[in-house]
Amino acid sequence: QLRRAIEECKRVILALPEQSERQKDAVVRLIHLRLKLQELKDPAEDEPNIRVVLEHRFYKEKSKSVKQMCDKCSTIIWGLIQTWYTCTGCYYRCHSKCLPLVSRPCVRAQVSHQAEYQLSICPESGLDSQDYRCAECRAPISLRGVPSEARQCDYTGLYYCSSCHWNDLAVVPARAIHNWDFEPRKVSRCSMRYLALMVSRPVLKLREINPLLFNYVEELVEIR
Q1: Which of residues 45 and 84 earns the better pLDDT score?
Q2: What's the whole-model pTM score?
Q3: Keywords, A to Z (predicted)?
């Protein structure tokens, strides 16, 4: 069936106008069909269902149709032809081949062991203090984008490469507590997941951190 589909796909490609969008889509389909055929000819060894890496507890995913991005290499996970895993604690996703390269510990463990927020607003110390390297994977970065663009996380104040910082947006607790500012800011992948896991934890003692806020926000007075 795959061989017949491949031959039919070839005929369709030749019949379609050169460089048209339909022809490009047909070429992509042909590539997927050939990869699937190769996979059947030379099946890989069965991957284990559970893998533990840096306190992540990775489970092999069964979904084939959902389009996901790999948190390690920042490329698409093709569920139809690639094996991939998701951490049940922090929802970190990656290809099977990327598992040995994972360098970010599971933030669920951090939430369990040290459930507290960074309460300084964007505590920047400068790229030089990071030796011009990503705060997470240690890849070389610079503000000029050579060899890789440095992206600042508004939560930690540290700089990350584009693979570890996807410009995700999140409310930063320090800005909310000190300025009552709930505008989402750009944060790294690690910070985004940490903040998502921490959002329902009652760890902020507001009367100790910023008691003056009760004088300006009516809702807080009612809650108190």
Answers
A1: 84
A2: 0.65
A3: Metal-binding, Repeat, Zinc, Zinc-finger
For residue 11 the two structure tokens come to 């005929």
Render 138-155 in DSSP notation, one character per residue: --B-BTT-SSSB-EE-TT
Does the domain at 50-101 match CATH 3.40.1160.10? Answer given as: no
> Is the model's pLDDT at 76 over the cut of 90?
no
Q: Does residue 43 have a pLDDT over 50?
A: no
Q: How far apart are CA 77 and CA 172, in angstroms?
A: 30
pLDDT tens for 102-113 read 888 888 877 777
Measure Cα distances from 204 to 19, 114, 116, 207 in Å. 58, 13, 8, 9
Task: Tell me the C-alpha distance between 206 and 57, whole Å.
Answer: 34
- Domain pair 50-101 / 115-222, same fold: no
Residue ranges per domain, the chain? 1-41, 50-101, 115-222
CATH superfamily label, 115-222: Zinc/RING finger domain, C3HC4 (zinc finger) (3.30.40.10)
Mean pLDDT on 46-54: 78
Q: Phi and psi of 40, rounded to 5°?
A: -70, -35
Q: What is the CA radius of gyration of the chain?
A: 23
In contact, 184 and 170? CB cutoff 8 Å: yes
